[in-house]
Amino acid sequence: MFRAGVRALLESYPDIQIIGEACDGNESIEMILKANPDVAIMDISMPKMDGLTATRLLKEANPNLKLLFLTQHENKEYIVPALKLGAEGYILKRAASDELVHAIRKIAQGNKYLDAAVTSAVLDAMSNPFDNSKDAYEDLTGKEKEVLLNIAKGKTNKEIGESMHISIKTVEHHRANMMRKLGLKNLVELTRYAIKKGIIE
């Protein structure tokens, strides 16, 4: 419903052409890489794959791709990772329609755009970098902490799934969310984090 409204809005501007839209994270990656739009609009919350994971994969495949997040999430736990992953813009769904159009135009011209409503969260994160890392572990769910411990112990996704009585797909979901929240990129960083945190020796 919301996506249809955004499409109708953008189609009313002659200088903006919509060349595709996706229903989930996996489809968005495939479509964006194929269409190579001037600006790709991404949400944080999407079925099958979250927007942050999709953005990381898209930027790895095409570093020149310009991405704008259009989302309801306005806390720094989402904003900061999105910008660190290389997103050119971040705007809230409750923003005025003309602000979205302005953001798209600015990014298409090679500029960055940040919703005024989230600027304070970004500045707070920049001025308190150690607080972010300190609190990140507390933001993990119980399942995510359990997955972190098991991965740090060297268990495979299959072994973790069997011990936690969940599917491999669910393990992968918890793993992706956990690594995003902690700002970790690979297994080496995860292991170092676990040792530093005292989760394993």
List keywords for this structure.
NreC/VraR/RcsB-like_REC, 201 residues, alpha/beta, elongated, four-stranded parallel sheet, Arc Repressor Mutant, subunit A, Rossmann fold, Sig_transdc_resp-reg_receiver, transcription regulation, 11 helices, transcription, 57% helix
Strand content is: 5-15%
Lateral arrangement of strands in the main beta sheet: 1-2-3-4
Superfamily at the CATH H level of the largest domain? Response regulator
Query: Count the strands?
Result: 4
Largest sheet: 4 strands, parallel
Number of domains: 2
The CATH architecture of the largest domain is 3-Layer(aba) Sandwich
Helix/strand/pairing category: alpha/beta
Q: Bin the helical content.
A: 55-70%
Shape, per Cα inertia axes: elongated
CATH top level assignment of the largest domain: Alpha Beta
Cα radius of gyration in angstroms: 18 Å
Order of helices and strands: HHEHEHEHEHHHHHH
Uncertain spans, ≥5 residues at pLDDT below 50? 129-134
Mean pLDDT score: 85
